[in-house]
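Colleagues,

For the teaching module next term, I've prepared a clean inverse folding example: a structure given as tokens, and then the sequence designed for it. I'd like students to try predicting residues themselves before seeing the answer, so please don't circulate the second half yet.
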């Protein structure tokens, strides 16, 4: 068998494969040469410059994508933070608006209170201005809820007024609010006086927005337009506060006139009222009033006390319980001669019974009651002979 020659082997090689090998060899040589050749400008080599030029679009694309993602993330974070900041600013704005509203309301209320107090300077004993929180008008009832209570010094019976005239009074007091009754209420009443004639009467509400003046006689000269003011005789309202003016006078029953009075205060526009100092009769407690009445009551005269003691005499003790050295220094009004002799042996006993010397308090009481009670005439009384001192003698000796 014949061996293949070298030429035959070369001709047997695939031409495409040889071309590829040639290209690879040339590219390798080119790369080696570019890696060693310096680039223009003296910065790096030609191969590095080619690589940078070839990869610059990819680098730019990757940078753009990175910047887009980073921007989206930052935008999302800023969006959430902006929403949070927006909510915080909204809450602060609402709080500021509420505070501004409250401050404006307080300033307006203070200005209104000062204006009301300045206008009502002529009223007696003004304590301050209080707001009306709720006004109730139904079925003859005219009342209101006042925005002041025991914390502000309000007590039951405190009068309420406006510069134009009297409004009503406080009937129930709470911790921060109170209930007031208007004069227009069907169950309200106050002592009244006609300023021109000086006649006294009772002003009452008719439950329909008007006032009635009662207890004015038929002989009165009261006329339409006369001023009606508080008389100060009811123990609640002060004297001299305007209530209204006479609107109509008609002949009523057999004794009194029917008088309608137009209120001086405009009850349909009440927002704030003036709180007046209560009457001393309202401020005083019932116990103190009873004590003062008892203290001012007259003391019964000595004769009445002696009659009371005679009606309820004390029990006579036994001789064993009575000291022998008891001395009588205040004889009874009808004591017998034997008792006086036994009590005072060194003094001659009088034949007639002597009246006791009254104490200074008793003397004053006798002078006070002398005009009220008739004098008590002494009567002859026969007492049995006693061998022991009287209870009065024992009391004095003690």
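(Answer key — instructors only)
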């Amino acid at each position: 068998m014949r061996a293949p020659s070298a030429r035959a082997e070369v001709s047997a090689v695939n031409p495409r494969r040889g071309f590829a090998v040639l290209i690879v060899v040339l590219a390798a040589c080119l790369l080696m040469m570019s890696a060693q050749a310096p680039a223009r400008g003296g910065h790096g080599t030609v191969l590095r410059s080619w690589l940078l030029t070839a990869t610059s679009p990819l680098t730019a694309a990757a940078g753009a994508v990175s910047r887009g993602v980073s921007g989206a993330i930052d935008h999302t974070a800023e969006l959430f933070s902006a929403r949070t900041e927006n909510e915080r600013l909204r809450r602060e704005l609402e709080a500021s608006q509420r505070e501004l509203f409250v401050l404006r309301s307080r300033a307006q209320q203070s200005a209104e209170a000062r204006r009301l107090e300045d206008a009502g300077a002529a009223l007696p004993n003004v304590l301050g201005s209080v707001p009306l929180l709720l006004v109730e008008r139904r079925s003859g009832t005219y009342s209101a809820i006042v925005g002041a209570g025991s914390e502000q010094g309000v007590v039951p019976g405190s009068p309420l007024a406006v510069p134009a005239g009297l409004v009503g009074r406080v009937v129930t007091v709470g911790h921060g609010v109170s209930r007031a009754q208007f004069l227009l209420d069907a169950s309200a009443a106050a002592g009244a006086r006609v300023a021109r004639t000086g006649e006294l009467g009772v002003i009452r509400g008719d439950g329909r927005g008007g006032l009635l003046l009662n207890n004015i006689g038929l002989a009165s000269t009261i006329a339409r337009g006369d001023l009606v003011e508080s008389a100060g005789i009811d123990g609640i309202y002060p004297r001299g506060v305007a209530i209204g003016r006479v609107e109509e006078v008609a002949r009523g029953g057999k004794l009194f006139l029917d008088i309608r009075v137009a209120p001086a205060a405009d009850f349909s526009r009440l927002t704030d009222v003036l709180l007046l100092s209560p009457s001393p009769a309202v401020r005083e407690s019932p116990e103190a009033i009873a004590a003062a009445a008892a203290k001012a009551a007259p003391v019964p005269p000595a004769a009445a006390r002696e009659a009371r003691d005679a009606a309820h005499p004390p029990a006579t003790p036994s001789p064993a319980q009575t000291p022998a050295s008891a001395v009588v220094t205040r004889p009874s009004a009808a004591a017998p001669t034997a008792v006086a002799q036994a009590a005072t042996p060194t003094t001659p006993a009088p034949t007639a019974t002597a009246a006791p010397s009254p104490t200074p308090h008793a003397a004053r009481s006798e002078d006070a009651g002398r005009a009220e009670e008739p004098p008590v005439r002494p009567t002859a009384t026969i007492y049995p002979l006693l061998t022991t001192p009287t209870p009065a003698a024992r009391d004095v000796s003690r």
